[in-house]
Amino acid sequence: MRLLKMMFVFVCTTFFLCCRHKAADGRGEIKKIDPEDFQAMFLKLSLPVNFADSSLSKKLTDSPLALSIFSQFIDDSLIQRHFGKTVKPRLYASGKLVVKKAETYLFIKALSPSKKILFVACLDKDGKFRTGMPLLIRDDDSELRYASGIDNKYAISVSRLRKDGDGRTFFVRTVYVYNEEGVFTLILRESNEGKPKTAQIYNPIDTFAHKHKFTGDYMQDKRNFISFRDGKNNSVIRFFIHFEKDNGNCRGELKGEARFVSSTIARYIANGDPCSLEFNFGEKTVHMKELEGCGNHRDIRCYFDGVYNKHKESVTKPAKTKRRSFIK
Q1: Does 223 lie in the same domain as 151?
Q2: 304 and 248: one domain?
Q3: 209 in a domain, yes or no?
Q4: Which residues face 104 on adjacent strands?
Q5: Beta carbons of 227 and 217 less than 8 angstroms apart
Q6: Which of 191, 208, 233 marks a domain boundary?
Q7: 39 with 96: CB under 8 angstroms?
Q8: pLDDT tens digits, residue range 165-220?
């Protein structure tokens, strides 16, 4: 009888520890929870709200958020886009803002050994996830710093800060609002970095190799072009974009790497950058489309879009040498 009691205690203890382990690390099977219970994990905040990237460490008011629970209500791509598919950051529910009979803003911290990000995820009035973006980013490989805030009208500002070698601080501030279509719309961009000079455009990848079939220069004119060069393998292509619209009053510029998702379509998605672009290659053209807000790389009233024609390289013919006459 005593032996049976000991076995019963052992089984119960083992079951309890296993369940606790599964709930704690987020990798075990956890039953689905109701949307109300999910949102109840987030502490209610009041406007206005301000965030600094120095606050990205875990706080006592933050609630641990298992990935299996997070995935029930928010698209995994929001995290994977910035951490990749192999890194599983620790997630924390850090607060919420509820607009009566409208959307709800959830603030989620994602922490890994090398990167810390505060995301905002927006749910519609029915509790369905619609969109999200990073507000603060601390990356060990970057000298950029971020600050963010939400005012009394639910306008979301994101400020990216950097210092040059002389200690001067430069900033790019973008302001977004959530609209009825379920996306964040850029309504303001301001910066003290200044606009590029009109006299000359420097192409930083101009001298790189271009053996891939889609590499080369695609142009509308001399001040509106996309340069593509070879990437580290055939599935990656380097690019540099410069455009000027509205008589030069609206400009954009971006350098990066795009990855092919099909035989003719490549997409730019980079860690720490909310911007997303798609390049659709034809035989002699490329169609560029802005998939998500690239306000950090352009003025507010223009977008990364349009069709560009492939520029035919001029072939320099060798100079003809005159034959010497030996007839006198």
Answers
A1: no
A2: yes
A3: no
A4: 98, 123
A5: yes
A6: 191
A7: yes
A8: 777 888 888 888 888 778 888 888 788 776 544 446 788 898 899 899 999 999 99
- Measured CA distances, 220 to 216, 226, 245, 280, 285 (Å): 14, 9, 11, 16, 10
Dig out the tokens for 261 from the structure: 């998702």
Cut 0.85: pTM above it: no
Phi-psi region of 95 (alpha: psi -120 to 50; beta: other; left: phi over 0): left
The terminus-to-terminus CA distance of the chain in angstroms comes to 129
Predicted confidence (pLDDT) at residue 28 exceeds the cutoff of 70: no
Amino acid at 29: E
Residue 90 within a domain? yes
Hey, what amino acid is at 135? L
Mean pLDDT over the full length of the chain: 82
For residue 20 the two structure tokens come to 């606790």
Domain check: are 187 and 237 in the same one? no
H-helix or E-strand containing 7?
A: helix 2-25
Q: β-strands 265-269, 250-260: how paired? A: antiparallel
